[in-house]
């Protein structure tokens, strides 16, 4: 028996070394942790249970039968993060560059299937040279097996992808389907075709970093939701993210213990400037409303005219969608609509209530927006919010103009409670634009057209640049003093805790894509 146990121990020690100490050292030299170190850092101490440590590839071509590494380039298993079950796969760059073989894919599929059966998140730590070139189509099949499961799992269990090295070619589509993509700065990149192919096809000269590095995807494409300076920070972000999210679509997020006493926040009285054209940072409103330091912003550097992220209200997890007046006056455009729509849908999938903060002058005009499809893309946000059955509460802090008023979680599209601050302006358009249209004749015929315009603007503003016309119709449930906003929200969400709302029976909706 001693010999048999020794054999086992020897095999496990071999598996633990992946592609060998030299390659692990090389990984460290690049500023990257090894696949196992990442898993250990992510999971609660001692909680990791490995599955498939002794799996090997089945390829014989290209002398592959003489290159066997136990585990075949991916560490898979389960464990806990802050006491809650998760499944994890961590690609091991030290084994054939973390490339995906048929068996490597089978290991990932196995834990995905288990996660679906038991209703727990899957975290993928990606660091791979792509398809295992020696395996050809068997590797492509492996990818497709994963994509298929990503789609089946979407909306049922949370899926988070951290890109901690290369992720190229079709391999990018698994992370793209998952709920959140995070990238480590300077050591990770994602692209469908690399710089060499780009040069051949389009004659563009571009580095890997510029083409598909973390900052590129955080600012330009929006592919990544979060970036981090190194592997340690990336793993911390995964843990933080998980803390707001339930285990699956049947559960609600964990409520943290919270002692009330700070519901009235005077700071909220002074954030919005007197002058309606002066910007302010909506993040100040968010921190004024939420539990102290509970806000985790998602997609921070992309479509900055809308802010989205997770926060807590009296210990309850909420999703925040908020226009941002310091960027493009908080206007809705193609990118911001897509960003907010995707975030809204994530929250709705996983029973996370939504707080929508509104200060929006309307949709961004122009040929660029129209030709790129602001109609279809703006409709995404309208669709996502209308479809959401989670508790939804709106606060209009200042402007709510035009179609954007309807879109930004108005009562008409199913919001549960709609508040407005006393300085709110809820109208079809700004007073100047409106007056120029409806009083055009009167103004042009006046002895002093400029003075007439000012007079008419004031008349229009008095009638509509306030929250009271909307409140009289019941479109606003209550006009509230800013300092009471936090208390109103806490009470509203407590009241809505047992909200039940179902969509009509259907196969699935047809969101404008
Ligand atoms: C097999 C691979 C591999 C791969 C890397 N290796 N990629 N083995 N299949 N795809 C091996 C290398 O041979 C090397 O083995 C080790 O991993 C480390 O690779 P290096 O090149 O030394 O590392 P580095 O210089 O850091 O470069 C990393 C890299 C590069 C940029 C990822 O290896 C690379 O360009 N690889 C090929 C990428 C690629 O074209 N993949 C296929 C994409 S198409 P040794 O033994 O020397 O340590 C694709 C389709 C998916 O993925 C479609 C899904 C639908």
Automatic annotation (TrEMBL):
GO process annotations (BP): carbon fixation
Pfam families recorded: Carboxyl_trans
Name the record gives this protein: Propionyl-CoA carboxylase beta chain
GO annotation, cellular component aspect: acetyl-CoA carboxylase complex
PANTHER family per the UniProt record, alphabetical: PROPIONYL-COA CARBOXYLASE BETA CHAIN, PROPIONYL-COA CARBOXYLASE BETA CHAIN, MITOCHONDRIAL
GO molecular-function term, one example from the UniProt record: propionyl-CoA carboxylase activity
Domain CoA carboxyltransferase N-terminal: residue ranges: 1-257
Ranges for domain CoA carboxyltransferase C-terminal: 260-505
Family (UniProt): Belongs to the AccD/PCCB family.
Organism: Lacihabitans soyangensis
InterPro entries: AccD/PCCB, AcCoA_carboxyl_beta, ClpP/crotonase-like_dom_sf, COA_CT_C, COA_CT_N
């Amino acid at each position: 028996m001693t010999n048999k146990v020794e054999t086992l121990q020897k095999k496990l020690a071999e598996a633990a070394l992946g592609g060998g100490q030299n390659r692990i050292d090389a990984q460290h030299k690049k500023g990257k942790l090894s696949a196992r170190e990442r898993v250990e850092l992510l999971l609660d101490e001692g909680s990791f249970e490995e599955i498939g440590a002794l799996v090997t590839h089945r390829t014989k071509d290209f002398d592959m039968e003489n290159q066997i590494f136990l585990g075949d380039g991916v560490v898979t298993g389960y464990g806990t993060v802050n006491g809650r079950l998760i499944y994890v796969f961590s690609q091991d760059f030290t084994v054939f560059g973390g490339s995906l073989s048929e068996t490597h894919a089978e290991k990932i599929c196995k834990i995905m299937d288990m996660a679906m059966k038991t209703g727990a998140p899957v975290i993928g730590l990606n660091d791979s040279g792509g398809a295992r070139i020696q395996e050809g189509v068997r590797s492509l099949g492996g990818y497709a097996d994963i994509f298929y499961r990503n789609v089946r799992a979407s909306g049922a269990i949370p899926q988070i992808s951290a890109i901690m090295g290369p992720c190229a070619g079709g391999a990018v589509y698994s992370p793209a389907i998952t709920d959140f993509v995070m990238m480590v700065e300077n050591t990770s990149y994602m692209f469908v075709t690399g710089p060499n192919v780009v040069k051949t096809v389009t004659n563009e000269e571009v580095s890997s970093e510029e083409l598909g590095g973390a900052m590129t995807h955080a600012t330009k494409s929006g592919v990544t939701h979060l970036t981090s300076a190194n592997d340690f920070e990336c793993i911390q972000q995964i843990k933080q993210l998980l803390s707001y999210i339930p285990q699956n679509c049947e559960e609600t997020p964990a409520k943290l213990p919270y002692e009330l006493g700070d519901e009235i926040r005077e700071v909220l009285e002074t954030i919005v400037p007197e002058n309606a054209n002066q910007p302010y940072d909506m993040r100040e409103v968010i921190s004024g409303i939420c539990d102290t330091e509970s806000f985790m912003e998602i997609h921070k550097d992309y479509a900055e005219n809308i802010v989205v992220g997770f926060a807590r209200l009296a210990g309850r997890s909420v999703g925040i969608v908020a226009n941002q007046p310091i960027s493009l006056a908080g206007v809705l455009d193609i990118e911001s609509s897509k960003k907010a729509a995707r975030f809204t849908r994530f929250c709705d999938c996983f029973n996370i209530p939504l707080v929508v903060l509104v200060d929006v002058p309307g949709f961004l005009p122009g040929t660029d927006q129209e030709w790129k499809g602001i109609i279809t893309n703006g409709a995404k946000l309208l669709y996502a919010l209308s479809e959401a059955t989670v508790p939804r509460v709106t606060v209009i802090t200042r402007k709510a103009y035009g179609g954007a008023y309807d879109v930004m979680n108005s009562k008409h599209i199913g919001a549960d409670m709609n508040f407005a601050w006393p300085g709110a302006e809820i109208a079809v358009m700004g007073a100047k634009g409106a007056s120029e249209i409806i009083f055009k004749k009167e103004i042009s015929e006046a002895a002093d057209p400029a003075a007439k315009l000012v007079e008419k603007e004031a008349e229009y503003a008095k009638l509509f640049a306030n929250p009271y016309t909307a409140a009289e119709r019941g479109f606003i449930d209550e006009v509230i003093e800013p300092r009471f906003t936090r208390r109103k929200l806490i009470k509203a969400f407590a009241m809505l805790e047992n909200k039940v709302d179902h969509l009509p029976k259907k196969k699935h909706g047809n969101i404008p894509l």
